[in-house]
Amino acid sequence: MTNEHTRDRFEQIDRLVLRSLLRPGKLYIAFSAVVLVCLGLGVFAYSRIITVAIGVTGKNNPVHWGALITNFVFWVGLAHSGTLISAILYLFRARWRTSINRIAEAMTVVAIMTAGLFPLVHMGRVWRAYYLVPYPNSRELWPNFRSPLLWDVFAITTYMLVSIMFFYVGLIPDLATVRDRSNGLVKKVYSLLSLGWRGSNRQWHHYETTYLLLAALATPLVISVHSVVSWDFAVSLVPGWHSTIFAPYFVAGAIFSGCAMIIVILMPMRKFLGLENLIEPLHFSMLCKMLIFMSLIITYSYFSEFFVAWYSGNVFEQHSFYNRAFGFYSPLFWVMVLCNSILPITLFSARLRSNMIYVYVVAVCVVIGMWLERFVIIVSSLSQDYDPYAWGQYWPSIVEWGITLGSFGMFFFMFGMLTRIFPVVAMGEVKSQLRPGPGDAGHA
Amino acid sequence: MKTIAIYVVIVAWFAAVVVAVAAFGLMQEPSMRPKQPIEYPHHTHVQDVGMQCLDCHRYAEKSIYATIPGTDICMGCHESVATDKPEIIKLTEAYRSGKPVGWVRVYQVKPHVYFSHKRHVLSGMKCQECHGPVEQMTTVQRVTDLGMGWCVKCHRTRGAPRECDTCHK
Amino acid sequence: MRDKRPILLAVFSSPQELTEGINSMLRSGHKTMEALSPIPLPELEDLLHQPTDIVRWFALGGCIVGGVFGMALQALTVLHWPLLVGGKPPLSWPAFVVIGFEMAILFGALATLAGFMLSAKLPPIAKEHYHIGCSQSDFALLVWHHELDYASIEIQLKAVGAREVRLPETEAPG
Amino acid sequence: MAPVGRARAGVILKHLIPEEDIIPGVSYWLNSTCSECPAGCGVKVRLREGNAVKIEGNENHPVNHGGLCARGQSALQALYSPARIQTPLRRNAGGRMDPTGWKDAFDLIARSTSASGSSEKVVVVTSQVTGAMRAMLERFAAGSPKFNFFVCEPLDYAPVAAANKLCFGLEAVPTYSFDKARTIVSFGADFLETWLSPVSNAHGYAISRNPTNGAMSRMIQFESYMSLTGANADERYCCPPGVETLVALSIASRMLSGTALPASEWETWRSALRPFTIERAAKAAGVPPQVLEQVADRLRSQTPSLALAGGPSSHSTCATALQVAVNLINFSAGGYGKTLTFDRAEHAPVGTYSQLLDLVEDMEAGRVSTLIVHECNPLFAFPEPERLKTAMKRAPLKIQLASVRDSASESYDIVLPALHWLERWDKVESRSGVYSLQQPVIKPWCDARHAGQALSDIMAVLPDHTTRMPEDYQQFLRERWENIPGDRSASEDSDDFWKQVLTDGGYWAPPVSRKVTLNARAAEAISDFAPMVSLSGEHVLLPVTTVRYGDGRQTGRPWLYEMPDPITLIVWDTPLLISLGTSKKWNCQSGDIVRLKCDKGFLEAPVYVQSGTHDAVVAVSLGAPSDKYASFYFEPANHPLHRLRGDIDKFSGALSWVGTPLTFEGVTGHNRLARLQGSGRQDGRGIAQTIATTEVGKLGKASRRPATLEFDLYPKHEHPVHDWGMVIDLSVCIGCGACAVACYAENNVHVVGKNECLRGREQSWLRIERFIDKGRTVFLPALCQQCEHAPCETVCPVYAAVHSSEGLDVQVYNRCVGTRYCANNCPYKVRRFNWFTYKVDPPLEKQFNPDVFVRTRGIMEKCTFCIQRIREHKEIAKDEKRRLRDGEVVPACAQSCPTGAIRFGDLKDPASQVSKQMDDPRGYAILAELNTQPSILYLKRVYHADGTVTETL
Fold first, then answer.
1. A390-406 tens-digit pLDDT
2. Cross-chain CB nearest to D789 (options C87, C92, C94)
3. ipTM at complex level
4. Which CATH number fits domain D534-670: 2.40.160.20, 2.40.30.10, 2.60.120.10, 2.40.40.20?
5. Distance (Å, rounded) from C-alpha A375 to C-alpha A336?
6. CATH number, domain with residue A231
7. Angle at Cα D921 formed by Cα D915 and Cα D925, nearest 5°?
8. Looking at CA atoms only, how far is residue D799 from chain A in angstroms?
9. Chains touching A (3+ CB pairs < 8 Å)
10. Which residues have CB under 8 Å from A416's CB, separation 6+?
């Protein structure tokens, strides 16, 4: 590799990646218009909750949580793969991550922001949400730290802040690149954002340490946050929720859905942003392997849930799972099994795995399947719990569907904005992959 | 410097929102000194005439409400006392017509609060401890926000019960 | 690195050339140098003087402080007004672990970021020397020298492949 | 009649506490007497700031002993009904009703009647009135043949009175003492719901059910639809409608052999009863003959025993025969003087259907000039509404005198507002010798007059007014209180007497003992008997009365709409109840609207498949939900009484309710029925538990809050002063739902409407669940269990759900942010969420309890053992410098319970009744294995092991 070649490759990478920051194309505008309409519908739907009451949703007694909490868990789940791919794969020195970690992290940040709204959206009296914040007040009252919901508040906030930090620290060198290639007001903005990064050896040294430490902190955080989310359910005594398997089960499910969502996002981005050279079939193959692995884990979890329910001899547990598989919500359950346990297994075939369209279809199915999984767990467990008198059924109302659509609108809109503002590929890291580094035997 | 200026602008924007919300909230609060239909001078009645709170607010030690007296109580004296003063003429008119005087409430606990005047008066509290020096006021001015913090502070210092169900209903 | 001495900036096209430039400078007794690069260059760590790494101590300290803060926040507020819930005593330690842990991570991460910004001097307080190509593909070396060395340094660096050797721009990148 | 007692002069109708001494913010209780049905239960009304906020049974009253049914409690919603008639109304030329004044109304009456001939009648049609009003009407009728009054009650009990006249020469309805009975055999009588005096019946019934001394009574029910009484029965036999008579006669026939009667009479009876063999009856009823033999033997051996007949089958063409048979059974079993007496005869005589027909004929012939309808709706109960309407049109002047608009208010010329019974002074005598007080509890808020005063005012303007009607009803009433017949015991001092009346809620004269002897001439009622229902596979309409709407007058009360029918657990609607066999035959499911052809057109309504309904029966309850608050509301498409053929029981003149054949025409649509019970299957969950009588003695000592854990992560917490607990005895819970309505009233629980109920958003804090355990129906009041380890509290992020030091799970409403996690985590699902800000139509909000916050949207709410009552009584005890007494604090549910199934008290006090009951070996906690440690202990329902078994709800 000659020096000139390196320079060319470096500049080529910059050009490729920074293209997305140039004037938006028609496609991007069309995409934004569509997602903004979705977001608008969601906002309108939420305005119904604000102006009328939470009763405009389909929730009832006994199903007090429904599609909104499903969305919460779903988006929190999606938020996990970003940090997972970034941090855990970084710790494991999986170098293939470099092309996609930025997108994954951006997805994390956007998804956790979307997720964070849902507890507020579903609250009966959102204007009292500040009661959950521990701050000194004249009432001398503090929130109840024993409540899993408060754990959620802390976990989600921590996760959001740490994810943003992690995302941002990773961005700093690239922001400097953008700064140096822009001028005028844009340059000013990127100057602010890049914090005066110079790329000095001293800065790089601390940068590396910091990135490693953040990755090391983020990794247990990823696991803890989704464990905490799962404890919202597992700590309660609702049959179908009250289960020790929930934490690993939810973490695996989160990673599963996250990987699928990355495929869903990455594939069109790669095409429309012309990143084929950076994001290669190899990456999709790796993601597919992760899908298979996670699918096996959650399939085992499904099996284990049912087995334990049967083996326990506990009438409540048994009924809850019987109801899940054969009750009112059983069609959703079986679609979920198809999407999460059967379709991903087909990716064992290398031929199918290399068929991008097939992979895409499977990824979309997994995203849907994971949404259904949360819905089935939440709703079917609640609908028939201890007291048969109080059993009931729930189906989301148009307002909830609107908000769900709006959350997708918000997610994709924010994601689109991020791709317009920040380089979609970690240029610095990709560049460093171009030279053989220590401990790397000639990859790339 | 420009950098700092931009940071300042961002912070100021959020601060402005917070202030606006707070101001809106304050506007919703009832006035601390509402205008009363009849200017009832507490200081004259207490300091000059020597009346006691319970003379008019008769049920403060019998009921959860202290109650505002009807015009018949006022007319017990004002049938003959100071009948020519404009405020008393208003009072007399109200009494004759039988229409209640539209006193504006100065102190009103929130509807979710159980507050018993009786319990507080019988425990030996002075009216002024909550209502301020009413005997020096003309129209009554509210001296507290009746917020939970205000209640709790006193309950804590006096060792009064602080169970939720003591006050919340 | 406040050094009032004059500075020279050399621009290289590759990390190898940069490394060679540093080595040649070291051989000629120039100890005060700073490399600017678009990618991290771990091999420089042995060549150039590296400051002590304080970021990890920040991380550790942040985690400890956060964990203690998290637990103390819960314990103290609960004791301030002990309310009975679910038959649990005010100090329900098992239930407090989660928030203690999250706080440890949050404070740890915040402290790490703070440590990073402090030790990497981000954002810079004063203006720093910079070469704009260093965020893309150029590798630059800043050499602090005595005025009389200027010519010899330029010759030395050009010899190992420097594209140009000049006085640095004193600009603030940020 | 008993000798007339001394008159006491100077009774002044005044309240115990003068109005000027009433302190705002303090509760006052005033006694009165319920007029929601003729039973006349004593009530007390809680007043706050001049509003009546709660109505409860009067513990001192000899009729109801403190309980009060759901319908009685809903009287407050009639008092503050948006449908109250607020001013006199008159019909204008366009046929609309215009508001007018009293004077104008009387002028109009005078003008309209001046032209009428002297022979034309003036008729007052009234709901059951007793006491002073009755005396006034009797005086009115005595004045001239021109003046007449007619008591119109859909449930007339005329066959009972007729049979007693035949048998004993007493045209009266006896009082039934269920408390003394060991065997109770009911032929269709729904005595726990609407029959005669349900609260009184339930009170006595519960006493007879005491399982501890091993002598729990046995209740046997023959009926053709599933009534609440039938669901409670130890033995329930479902027979075709009308066959009850045959069964009763056969049992009477079997019991006759050992009856002490003069030989000739015995022979008369024997020959009359000869055709009614056990075999014949058993065949018709579809039960084995041994069952009937055993019933007859039990009636004789397990004494005291009580037989009674009522319900729809008492309204048949052979109604009197049935009652005579029952009389014979009771006489044979020696029940008279023990389980039923005429000492305090119930229910003053009521006009019968044949008398009503005479009246209609008079109207048709133009012989009625003025018709005054007081608090009743003849159109509701008359089987030929069009005929009655036409007949009424012939009367030149039709006046309605009522407090609340009813479904017929549009058909009168003048509508005059009457005071609600909670706004007036009166004297009620629902049982002879029980003089109950009615006193105004609030100031009238409508321009209304006392019905008695209004009637006498109307009389005053009528031409040819010869009767000496009291000009001042108040004065008349005073005289009635001064002259109480038969009273020789009470104090001479009228002031003391009046104080006692106000304190007790009335004056109870000592019962006058009346012995009865059987008259064999009654046998003619039997010998003339012809089986009335021919069962040719067709279906028969059966109008039934339920706890909710009673005889139909209590429509327009939101609480009753939202109260689930205890059997079907359906709110709002009153579907047609059919059997599973019928539904299969018709190929329809619950909720399908079916069209049934009958003699008089069609019946179109949704069906509900209710097990326990006879295959030949289509049962329809009276009353229907209306959003207009009208009383006596019915749906013209499905009002059963308008489909009756108009058959008459010739001995009593009563209208037959049975015998309208129905033919299925098809399913015409679907109407989702809001059934609140998600599932009635327990599947081994052990929520409702039962135990056989034989097993009770074998039970070991129970322990409250069973320790399922040997090790607990957390230490136990203590309750320093009080520890509130509740014991609910499922053995005596009859499922009447009075507690649920009491809870609505006490706690400002919102009524949400049928659509919200359909979505499972009913707000009831207390509900009656209905399950089957070991083949026995169990009614289980489910409310917040106030768990010691409450799952709801832990998960609340803001401490809105916390535990009080007195062992209550309190909910701090304004702290709630509405995450609803607590409700998810409540295994009992007793938390209710305000999905919207629910509104009530004014002035219903005047009834709101000022001690309870009216919850708005987004707030979780629940039962807290009526914490406002605990607080109130703690304050009182504190004022009186004493500890709370056991039984001083009674939550609304426990107070209203007619059977005393719910007991509440302080577990910290070892001497309290609840503490003692906590050791009852029958006790169990629901879902104890979850270690929630509830504060409510349920006592298993005790059943007779040899009773009948119910498979499905």
1. 999 999 999 999 999 99
2. C87
3. 0.91
4. 2.40.40.20
5. 10
6. 1.20.1630.10
7. 75
8. 6
9. B, C, D
10. A28, A31, A32, A35
